[in-house]
Amino acid sequence: MTIDNDSSGAATDAAGAAFGALPVRPGKIIAVHISYASRADQRGRRPAAPSYFFKASSSLAESGGVIERPAGTELLAFEGEIALVIGAPVRRVALEDAWDHVAWVTASDDLGLYDLRANDKGSNVRSKGGDGFTPIGPQLIDARAVDPAALRVRTWVNGELRQDDTTAGLIFPLAQFVADLSQHFTLETGDVILTGTPAGSSVIVPGDVVEVEVDDPSSGATSGRLVTTVVDGPALAFDAEVGSLPSVDDTQREEAWGSREAAGLPAASDPSTGSGTDAGTGSGGKEPVAEPVEASSRAPLPAALRDKLARVPVAGLSQQLRKRGLNNVTIDGVRPLHPERTLVGVATTLRFVPGREDLFASHGGGYNAQKRAFDAVGEGEIIVIEARGETGSGTLGDILAIRAHARGAAGIVTDGGVRDADAVTAVGIPVYTAGAHPAVLGRKHVPWDVDVTIACGGTTVQPGDILVGDADGVIVIPPGLAEEVADAALAQEEEDAWIAARVAEGHAVDGLFPMNAVWRARYEESRG
């Protein structure tokens, strides 16, 4: 049976603003993974039985609201769906009686942030459970007045129709969800079942307006259009010690956008450069994009060596490299945003070429070299950017800094500018830059290639070189010399500390710095 729509009027007035169009706050929101044949065909798999996940009731939102896309994420996707609202408690109901326990149907948008699926894909707790991630409404349709096999769901983005399907395209009838779930637990009054989305779900970006409508074409009954606007949100305020940081790969991009082509990725069977949508802007324009870069396969810096290098001032390392005939190993003209932090890591490189309009049109959009570099940086690696010392445009901003931080990068070094300098500093990752500049990339630079030998701050940097930075600057160490140089620099630091103590005692510098034979003998004796 269903409850009388009229009996819920007071509850709707009192709680409608908090819970969308619903009369009460639902105890459970249960969502179906894949239910439409069109979606199953798009994903390349058709389930033999329904599967489900839960969403928090705190994720509910009303029509006309906003959804925040956190800074540093890229794959927020809409899913227009038909929502069923349970009218009376039901347990172990037969399929033929299940629809009698549905009081209303309405529109919903099962929003999801694919950047957060990595550690709980399937349960979708982080990716779909956030505040505002379940807009619902704006009006309820009496379930007794419609044919559950002839309902329609449509979704528009910025006025363009993106989804259009009916329940005739379902793999499982709506009533089956009620019957199936009731075998395992009691469905209570006000519980909501989100019944899955058809093909057409894709990525949305700040500024986009999503509208979802459920209707019965034969009777004209409609939910009205459920409207949600995407806005920029703050970065997720935690680190890897607290929870799961955003992480995306090409599989997540393909599933979020709906296809490799829409995501701006090469065809799966064609590893060469292809054409696709600009995944960074959601503009839908076709541009050439380069082959995605896989995560680095370089061996990480050994922990013992990293510890040694972190304890040696850059000035000491410079001294030891000079003794070995290497003078041009400092990255000049860059200063740290965190002078109190030590930078140690292995270089991965990104090269910009001078801005040229035709080249930026072909290489600046889509999944360009800049995006690939920040998506592929490995743990303990430093992204080193060649910008030719041109500071009249930013070479990264806070979103890319967040991405590098989330990937476990050790830092970023650019001989160009940084946009959103205060926000980049707040991310906490060590960054060295030639200065701040508000302009976007296309003003002076074209992102060209990654993991090639580059020139940064007047010195050559190769992928795999070891970089160390402190308040004095950044130095480049050939990997084969790193252990030797680190040991020699530590020994020199110990010697210099002993000399400094003697000077503080009042001894003259002459003969002590550098040490003559007499002082050398005293030093060796002090060491036992």
Automatic annotation (TrEMBL):
Species of the source: Microbacterium flavum
Domain Fumarylacetoacetase-like C-terminal: 29-230
Superkingdom of the source species: Bacteria
Key words, A-Z: Hydrolase, Metal-binding
Protein name as it appears in the record: Fumarylacetoacetate hydrolase family protein
Region (Disordered): 242-298
Molecular functions (GO terms): hydrolase activity
